[in-house]
Q: What sequence folds into this?
């Protein structure tokens, strides 16, 4: 190898590692179900740590289970250049969402090891706890606690649908670490991720340079109706919580269309009580996810939702609770990181374009602590949060190469 610029990752090794990790929680349709802090998450964490140990990395875990895998640099006083993502998945998740960012980071380190390249600054790979927010809210919990935006006790107290809390689950799987979250310097943070949307593939581009991430608000909405018998109760005197909830669910989607083309509105989780076929639902609790890349527009969407819910509550004479459970404003990444990613992609000869992220990522919290950038690669048909999620081997390799050279620009290879 003549110069550092010729350095390339081993895409085959990274691809195989992704397929290996995907076996932990693998689903019949080829996806992954590895919910945060379950036994499968524990096994996934142990698999990644095992791989990191084989690379000679030092491992540390903080009090919310974020786990850091560090390669020493020549100058230990320098803050580490970090990369990472999450390995918890959706119930019908894919092999690449999150997992790609963690394993691409380990591939970068293995490539440096293979070539005996030392860097001035340490390099660190992290996996964050409960990025998905599927089992426990808020979303991006571990990185949010690390950035001091989410309180540790608030996170510990979060419970899943069975009433199990984060603290007990961290203890149970052996990942309630010593380190105080955030007590951990960071020189710069890069996250590599599949785009999870169709833009790169439609435009036939290999690398997505991410200037920004959409803002998000999550709510739990509870409609209080009145249980009664499905047979004898006449239609005109019913207080059917589900029929009232349906109006709000349709409004969530309607608001997203009202604020097209970037508005997003989703109802993904619904719990009907008592959930019996011959009882008029007395209570319905459902999730609301609204997003927009512009902060004031996201606020307008929220105000429209609140106003509508108040109108329905008055019209139907029922109590409707709306509780915000996650929020982060739109965030822009750092110009210096964006430039380094752009330069690396062009020097490597990859086509590229800017893509605003519709999905939230741990990088949005790291952006508050250090220069931060994200690298996207296409995923098949833009599909993610679905077991058929897929990505091309050459794109997996390309994203990791851009990560390698972007990190080296900050960590600085030692000149021999
Ligand atoms: O919801 C999100 O955007 C991310 O997948 N947690
Ligand atoms: Mn993700
Ligand atoms: Mn996800």
A:
């Amino acid at each position: 190898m003549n110069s550092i610029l010729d350095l390339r990752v081993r895409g085959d090794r990274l691809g195989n590692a992704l397929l290996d990790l995907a076996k932990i929680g693998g689903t019949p349709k080829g996806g992954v179900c590895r919910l945060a802090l379950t036994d499968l998450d524990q096994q996934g964490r142990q698999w990644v740590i095992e791989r990191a140990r084989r690379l000679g990395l030092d491992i540390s875990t903080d009090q919310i289970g974020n786990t850091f895998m560090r390669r020493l640099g020549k100058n230990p006083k320098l803050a580490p250049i970090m990369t990472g993502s999450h390995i918890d998945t959706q119930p019908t998740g894919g092999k690449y969402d999150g997992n790609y960012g963690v394993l691409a980071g380990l591939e970068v380190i293995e490539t440096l090891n293979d070539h005996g390249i030392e860097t001035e600054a340490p390099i660190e790979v992290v996996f964050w706890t409960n990025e998905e927010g599927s089992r426990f809210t808020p979303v991006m919990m571990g990185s949010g606690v690390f950035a001091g935006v989410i309180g540790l006790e608030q996170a510990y107290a979060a419970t899943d649908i069975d009433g199990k809390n984060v603290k007990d689950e961290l203890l149970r799987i052996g990942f309630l670490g010593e380190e105080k979250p955030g007590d951990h310097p960071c020189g710069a943070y890069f996250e590599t991720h599949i785009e999870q949307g169709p833009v790169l593939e439609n435009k036939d581009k290999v690398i997505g340079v991410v200037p920004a991430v959409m803002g998000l608000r999550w709510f739990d909405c509870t409609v209080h109706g009145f249980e009664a018998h499905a047979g004898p109760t006449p239609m005109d005197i019913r207080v059917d919580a589900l029929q009232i909830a349906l109006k709000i669910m349709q409004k969530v989607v309607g608001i997203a269309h009202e604020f097209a083309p970037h508005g997003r509105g989703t109802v993904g989780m619904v719990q009907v009580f008592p959930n019996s076929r011959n009882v008029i639902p007395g209570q319905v609790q459902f999730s609301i996810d609204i997003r927009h890349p512009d902060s004031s527009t996201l606020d307008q969407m929220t105000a429209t939702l609140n106003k509508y819910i108040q109108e329905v509550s008055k019209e139907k004479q029922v109590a409707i609770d709306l509780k915000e459970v996650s929020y982060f404003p739109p965030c822009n990444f750092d110009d210096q990181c964006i430039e380094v990613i752009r330069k690396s992609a062009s020097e490597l000869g990859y086509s590229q374009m800017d893509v605003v992220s519709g999905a939230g990522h741990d990088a949005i919290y790291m952006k508050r602590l250090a220069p931060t950038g994200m690298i996207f690669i296409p995923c098949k048909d833009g599909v993610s949060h679905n077991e058929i999620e897929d990505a091309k081997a050459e794109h997996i390799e390309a994203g990791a190469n851009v990560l390698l050279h972007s990190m080296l620009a900050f960590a600085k290879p030692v000149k021999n």
In short: Residues 4-214+330-411 form a domain with the Aminopeptidase fold (CATH 3.40.630.10).
